[in-house]
Write a structure and sequence with these properties.
The chain is mostly helical and 281 residues long. 65% of the residues lie in helices and 5% in strands. The termini are far apart.
């Protein structure tokens, strides 16, 4: 065993002992799963989606719009976790109100979510939330919690080359690798509010979007996907509202006028294809 690997194993072991019995800390996840391995997982997820025949939007107006909003969010994300190479993909599926980010910085946005949002501030809050999962290494932390230390350590040491591919297949199929803990979701909410505020948007956008989906979920079950991955509770809304106030998060920009023509185009394209968007049912 090389001296570098020996040092890494010793460091990991010390962190694991300290973390025993609690939700895996960020430092442990970072020690176990390298940036390179996170990038590899993200690339494999994209490959799995491609194999499944995922249809991506190629319309420059739509793609440039989504990337433009996302780039404003990534400014803050890059400060908290430098070195992530972000990529944004728009999935052409108006029936799905969903978005997710994978390790390595791939953000996937469904057209159904774009149609469901009322304004740009809501999109910014959701994408800030998803970016926060990447910044805080939540997937790696959940891998340790769910798979166990022995399995993840074998991945970290390169002894289980098939594990990442299996995880990639799960993420591509579900749009979420593992269910995030309540602690992770709360932290990602805070990232969403903070990042959208730093970009000049109203930080309450993420709250408003969640509340909108919750209100109409019963009548439109297709909207349940995002809420099933991000369960909304009164405590969660209260915490986020207090967090915005306590941290004096500013921002008034809504951007509804910029989102509107994009929504209109996506709705028209869906109708032309004989598909009724989930948010319009």
């Amino acid at each position: 065993m090389s001296s570098g690997l020996t040092i890494r194993v010793v460091s990991i072991s010390a962190l694991l002992i300290a973390a025993c019995g609690v939700h895996t800390p960020k430092g442990v996840a970072q020690a176990l799963i390298s940036d390179e391995q996170e990038n590899q997982l993200g690339q494999q997820v994209k490959q799995e989606l491609d194999k499944q025949g995922t249809k991506y939007v190629k319309d420059p107006e739509v793609v440039n719009y989504v990337q433009g909003v996302a780039k404003r969010i990534f400014v803050s994300a890059n400060k908290d976790r430098p070195g992530v190479t972000w990529h944004v993909y728009v999935i052409d599926d108006p029936k799905q109100v969903n978005a997710f980010a994978t390790p390595g910085g791939n953000l996937f946005v469904y057209t159904g979510l774009l149609i469901a949002a009322d304004n740009e501030a809501q999109l910014a809050g959701v994408w800030g939330h998803e970016s926060g999962h990447v910044v805080a290494r939540h997937t790696a932390r959940q891998m340790v919690d769910a798979m166990g230390l022995e399995t993840v350590l074998s991945i970290a040491l390169g002894e289980n080359p098939n594990a990442l591919a299996e995880l990639a297949g799960t993420l591509a199929a579900k749009g979420a690798l593992l269910s995030y803990s309540r602690q992770d979701e709360t932290e990602a909410d805070e990232y969403g509010a903070r990042y959208s505020s730093a970009a000049g948007y109203d930080p309450h956008g993420i709250i408003q979007f969640f509340q909108k989906l919750e209100k109409i979920e019963g009548q439109q079950p297709a909207l349940a996907k995002y809420l099933s991955d991000h369960p909304l509770t009164a405590d969660r809304i209260t915490h986020l509202t207090e967090y915005i106030q306590q941290n004096n998060l500013k921002g008034t920009e809504l951007g509804a006028e910029r989102l509107q023509p994009v929504k209109q185009k996506l709705v028209a394209q869906a109708h032309a294809a004989g598909v009724k968007p989930a948010a319009l049912r």
